[in-house]
Automatic annotation (TrEMBL):
This is Glycine zipper 2TM domain-containing protein. Pfam families: Rick_17kDa_Anti. Keywords: Signal. It comes from the Bacteria. Coiled coil: none annotated. It comes from Variovorax rhizosphaerae. The keyword Signal applies. The keyword Hydrolase does not apply. Residues 1-22 form the signal peptide.
Length: 148
């Protein structure tokens, strides 16, 4: 009974974790918006990581639970599951921390043909410079400045 309950809980937690990792707007089938303009200003900045908080601990805990269920019998197996889940959660959290380092980026101000100023923050693109004619591809957080 306990093993069946833990299996169901683990399955629900894994499904929730995978659903949280889905990209928002990934099913958007509309063509990307492309605008033309000239770079007015480029400022250095840092981009924060886009990983979901706690995903490493959850995945690590589930992995530790799975490994712990392979060890021992009876009460020993239950103890191994708990120790495995805790150890996996700690290890998964530490692995996730390694990937949460800020990334070098740049904030680019582009004046479009209609005179509107558009600000785009993206990873560093060394081939961009002030005064250069560019395309702004996409909109919102997915917008990118690319050379013409």
């Amino acid at each position: 009974m306990t093993a069946r309950f833990l299996t169901r809980i683990s399955s629900l937690a894994l499904a929730g974790t995978l659903a949280a990792c889905a990209l928002p707007g990934a099913n958007n089938s509309a063509p990307p918006e492309i605008r033309m303009g000239r770079i007015e200003q480029i400022s250095a900045t840092q981009l924060q990581d886009s990983h979901q908080i706690g995903v490493g601990a959850i995945v690590g805990g589930l992995g530790g639970l799975a490994v712990g269920s392979l060890i021992g019998n009876g009460n020993g197996r239950d103890v191994a599951r708990v120790v495995g889940a805790i150890g996996g959660a700690v290890a998964g959290n530490e692995v996730q921390k390694r990937y949460e380092q800020p990334v070098a980026g740049q904030q680019i101000i582009v004046r479009t043909g209609s005179g509107v100023l558009v600000s785009v923050t993206q990873p560093v693109a060394p081939d961009l410079r002030v005064g250069q004619n560019v395309f702004i591809e996409g909109s919102g957080e997915s917008a990118r400045v690319i050379p013409r």
